[in-house]
Specification:
single chain; 274 residues; alpha+beta; 3 domains; three-stranded antiparallel β-sheet; disordered N terminus
């Protein structure tokens, strides 16, 4: 693993969390471990990473995104020492919330999923908000995080109370989801990126029943709800194509099985891809 570093770094270069232990692998890498959400994460960076905060505007501008990737356990599992060009590849491949709507929806759904029953008051620890939550949700700062919290309050989706921090900021101490917020969460969960639905496009012949069963079981085991158009009740004033398009819009993704080369599968998968 290399020689243990003595006093060179005490915090993670990306998250600024305390490190467990650190090593230098010859002259090519800085390696260390940090605790994240109860598990240990191994980090390996090129030795020039010690100067990135001074020398690289890319690193300074994307540090919060890299921290979010780590906190969401999406960090690359290979053991190579990552250089700036590797971090740029990671950033380019990852889908971050970019618009105000995407940012507020991601924040709202994180808060919503914490409740075990409607109307529950959720208490947050100062350390969790100030050091962890805003980074996990890809905000640039606690100030930006608070801006979106206040927006959710203004929209009537949550009610919240704040406490001051020792640094002069406020942090969200407790909150609860309002009835309006619950309705909005249901709407979000039934559409697009935040949906847990998966549209399955395939032939429904007897020959493909084992394939159908395998796809359905796999989706259920991984927490998704499979949508098969032949299991849906079609309203009398709705064509099947209208219903297919409506269901595809409600789904996070589509699985297409081209066994038997049915025209409908090409139509459904093409619409999903578009």
């Amino acid at each position: 693993m290399g020689i243990q570093l003595q006093g060179r770094i005490s915090k993670c270069i990306i998250t600024e969390f305390p490190i467990e232990r650190s090593f230098v692998d010859g002259v090519d890498a800085i390696e260390y471990y940090i605790k994240l959400n109860g598990s240990t994460q191994f980090i390996s960076l090129s030795t020039d990473a010690l100067e990135w905060h001074k020398t690289s505007s890319f690193f300074r501008n994307n540090k919060n995104k890299l921290a979010g990737i780590l906190l969401n356990k999406k960090w690359p599992k290979d053991k190579r020492a990552l250089r700036l060009e590797h971090l740029k590849e990671i950033i380019n491949e990852y889908n971050f919330p970019r618009t105000p709507s995407e940012k507020s929806d991601l924040l709202f759904m994180d808060l919503y999923k914490r409740q075990k029953e409607d109307g529950q008051i959720i208490n947050l620890l100062e350390h969790e908000v100030v050091s962890l939550l805003w980074k996990k949700l890809y905000f640039n700062s606690l100030r930006e995080f608070n801006f979106y919290i206040n927006y959710l309050i203004y929209q009537g989706q949550i009610k919240g109370s704040f406490n001051p921090t020792t640094d002069g900021y406020n942090y969200l101490k407790s909150y609860n989801i309002t009835i309006q917020g619950i309705k909005y969460a249901i709407k979000l969960q039934e559409q697009g990126e935040l949906s847990q639905n998966c549209f399955v496009a395939m032939s429904f012949s007897d020959y493909t029943q084992d394939i159908r069963k395998g796809i359905k079981n796999s989706l259920v085991k991984t927490g998704f709800s499979p949508i098969f158009i032949d299991e849906q009740i079609i309203d009398s004033d709705q064509t099947i194509n209208d219903r297919i398009i409506a269901e595809l819009k409600r789904c996070k993704f589509c699985i297409a099985d081209f066994t038997e080369h049915k025209n409908g599968v090409y139509f459904e998968s093409g619409f999903a891809l578009g």
